[in-house]
UniProtKB/TrEMBL annotation, chains A, B, C, D:
Name this protein carries in UniProt: Flavin-dependent thymidylate synthase
Domain of life of the organism encoding this protein: Bacteria
Active-site annotation: 223
HAMAP family, A to Z: ThyX (MF_01408)
UniProt keyword annotation of Nucleotidyltransferase present: no
Amino acid sequence: MTLSPEQQAEIDDLRASPQPTLRTVSEGMEKHLYSAVPVLDHGFVRVVDYMGDDAAICQAARVSYGKGTKSVQNDEGLIRYLMRHWHSTPFEMCEVKLHVKLPVFVARQWIRHRTANVNEYSARYSILDREFYIPAPEALAAQSVVNNQGRGEALEGEEAERVLRYLRDDAMRAYDHYEEMISQDGQQGLARELARMNLPANVYTQWYWKVDLHNLLHFLRLRADAHAQYEIRVYADAICDIVSDWVPFAYKAFEDYRMGGATLSSTALDCVRRMLKGEEVTQENSGMSKGEWREFVGVLG
Amino acid sequence: MTLSPEQQAEIDDLRASPQPTLRTVSEGMEKHLYSAVPVLDHGFVRVVDYMGDDAAICQAARVSYGKGTKSVQNDEGLIRYLMRHWHSTPFEMCEVKLHVKLPVFVARQWIRHRTANVNEYSARYSILDREFYIPAPEALAAQSVVNNQGRGEALEGEEAERVLRYLRDDAMRAYDHYEEMISQDGQQGLARELARMNLPANVYTQWYWKVDLHNLLHFLRLRADAHAQYEIRVYADAICDIVSDWVPFAYKAFEDYRMGGATLSSTALDCVRRMLKGEEVTQENSGMSKGEWREFVGVLG
Amino acid sequence: MTLSPEQQAEIDDLRASPQPTLRTVSEGMEKHLYSAVPVLDHGFVRVVDYMGDDAAICQAARVSYGKGTKSVQNDEGLIRYLMRHWHSTPFEMCEVKLHVKLPVFVARQWIRHRTANVNEYSARYSILDREFYIPAPEALAAQSVVNNQGRGEALEGEEAERVLRYLRDDAMRAYDHYEEMISQDGQQGLARELARMNLPANVYTQWYWKVDLHNLLHFLRLRADAHAQYEIRVYADAICDIVSDWVPFAYKAFEDYRMGGATLSSTALDCVRRMLKGEEVTQENSGMSKGEWREFVGVLG
Amino acid sequence: MTLSPEQQAEIDDLRASPQPTLRTVSEGMEKHLYSAVPVLDHGFVRVVDYMGDDAAICQAARVSYGKGTKSVQNDEGLIRYLMRHWHSTPFEMCEVKLHVKLPVFVARQWIRHRTANVNEYSARYSILDREFYIPAPEALAAQSVVNNQGRGEALEGEEAERVLRYLRDDAMRAYDHYEEMISQDGQQGLARELARMNLPANVYTQWYWKVDLHNLLHFLRLRADAHAQYEIRVYADAICDIVSDWVPFAYKAFEDYRMGGATLSSTALDCVRRMLKGEEVTQENSGMSKGEWREFVGVLG
């Protein structure tokens, strides 16, 4: 992972000088501040700032639901209740700002989550670095033969080598030409906003990404999921660790009700009821399609 | 203004115990934390939490625009440049959470700004207090005779007295009946979610409102404007004071480019150019309607 | 229900003159256009415009997922797949615009759904009508003794009569005074934006509400739910009927996967697995709180 | 421009069969439906669906502002009033759905406008076509020597030739390798979601993009502006033509108040006032920085 020396100096400087504040402080999060967590070969996630903690979620809920919330005995119970009943607004009261360095094709998936604030490094104004994501051998997955979206086993031998050679060589050549095109060495130099179009989607970019906890958990549910592309999932996993230290009660409820939970359809619930009564339920008499049944069996596995 | 004793105790407790943090601290904002600013007869605004400061705006801009932003010599210059050219995302990197107590008819206007997070006190679950907004005599404005939206001079004498009597008596009676309806004194008691419908729109509610700086400034531009209803403008004015201490450079740029500025149409710009050349421009030869011309003359004052 | 004569004339006029279009047409929705569905005592819902149909959902999905989606044999299968796997963007490709007349306290709940476009009748500019929601006797529910939010049985006898008398009399008096205050009969007349504060929350307002299908279904899941307040649920129910005619495949999938479905936590799924293996699972050995267990038992019916 | 034969057949089919509807019909927009407007070398914009017209904007405004809006004599006057006073919600009542084919680096700028619905062709599931944006000679601009963001004159001679050769050759080689990597010709074939990372940012993608008129006009103001990158501006220009036919009054007001207008700061307005009184105002005594003054002179130019 590569923070630039300037970035590292900025971080060191900031870490050295705690200041007093009257705001809510999350001990678990303070230790993450400014420390970049390495992800993939050149990427990272680092916490730039945060607002709120578990107590702030409860405080907002108690404004909303008043005395009603006092019957729930403690903060953890209240947070579990809110998560279980899909109360989203108290979780929106926490906010986090991350600095992320990531390949462009990952950034393109990530940005589809619209309810966040983003400042991305601009290749119209500035020159991108010569940094490209090259998968580790074990991440060099074959196309799944089961479905269009998934990955199969890792490629091996000559095929793997050829793929890595293509990825590396094409990236290096594209970057060489990028540099030559914008160079003013005895020439005018192509506009940066044009030259960047020669760079492949594994080039690294970086951004500041600011999001509230409710929308962050929604992002994590989709992107830390086993069906998410590996290259975004590793970022989601790194963020999960951070969230777990920041708001431990909320994260634990999230794991139980979202990550580890499952939504069953009306038809599926009916099948469960029949099975609990001892009935033999099969795909044929379940009312589900083959795909649904396969997923249903997977959940009850 | 009335914070409940519990709210005041919570505030006193929080103010007494600063904690160290590695996050960005805005000195100007720390002094506002937890101090409720009185607004109207029973309302208030108080800062619960915040994220970022002027430097955080610049930091995000420099991630986006890289070396390009270094040519702007200092933070204030950069912030003015960003404001002037409608760069909104760096301002989104600051966030504030406010606790606001306000009459329901003000809350109904306020909530129309959708890009914020809100937790409102719920009258489905809890019982509202007997607190109603009754305008001060100088705020008891007549309907404007010029336009449908505006206010004229303050009512006086018997008319003013009658209005105040109606507002006070109807509020008190409505609240008496609200209390009687939900009372279980020898009866079942009407559901709170129904009983609340008897309360008029000047009853006070409260909420936590969390918003980023870009959207907050947009709110302030509309609601601190002279055309906004007085009862929401006083809240906007109170928030302006807070923002001015929180992010002084951004607020100053906002005053110059937004609050004190004006957008001229293509036609209006053309008129200015003609006037600067010495031409006599009148409404008739301006290409503007009477309404537009009146506003144009107002701007050129 | 009361459309004004002008509104009814506008509707009759529009219904009389179909025009040719090249756009997608939903037969089921055309029959709803401009016909107001009565809700509560003075409210209504009517479809003003719509965009898209079931086929438009599939068309958008096929742009996204390309050849992958052709393996799903037909539109209904594809829509069920999308709903089951929480693919939201294809459903966002349909849009509907409704004209709704509703009590203010219902409007206040409704507006909390932020991802919609709203134009509400403005009581700053215009004068509200003398129309108030007065619950039917069977909707005059007592406060639940089980939880703070719910409703118990309907009030009866003298208590019911007194409640209805309060609601009616207070509304009429408040409106009389509203009229007197804004009257210019020998006086200046209070500004409308102030006078409105005397009106209780059961006064009717109206708005145009425009929303995409994904966000509409989210709204319906929360507001057509048995736990929603009756007075908003009847609006949600009326809209459900409309959606069912507009996009029948999407609505059916919504009923199966959302309205009739349930999300089970990791702990709850584990209990189901244990029960299916024949183990005796009780609240005590379930790992759930009493509240969770009660809900779990309710789901398994 | 290249619609696939299947896309063209779908379009021809749809254009051949108008159907009756009770909805608002915009004659000007009907003629655009399904006709793809070519943009750049392989891109296009085509209207898939729309909702509303100029009259729908006024209808929504009249719900909001009631009788107040009747004093404005006609629809065009009302629309100009709404645009001038930044009333955004009535414009949100119109919606359009576009199918756009565009280079990835343009898509990355475009997606930053978050208030829209998007379904993009997925290169996780499907295989991208061998289509790349190669600038026409006159669009092959040099980096501006004045500012970091802009473009200078077009490159010429050998430098231009070399740039075009790099762009073409690198794209073709990257695509050859992309094809080889995913090929299952005697091998497993790399997962598509990985192989795509080898493709440069001038490869074409496509999406369905649905947006309301208010947010579309905001997009056009920024992207049809002279400072926008040429490659996105040509898309914005094509959409401007469409909007002009769809809602002619709104578009004309937009041109006058937004595209052709300018926002003057408090300081700039003061300078105008001084100049109109005959005072000699220079940068030195203006209170503006050099950059602001240059822009100010440009506006009054």
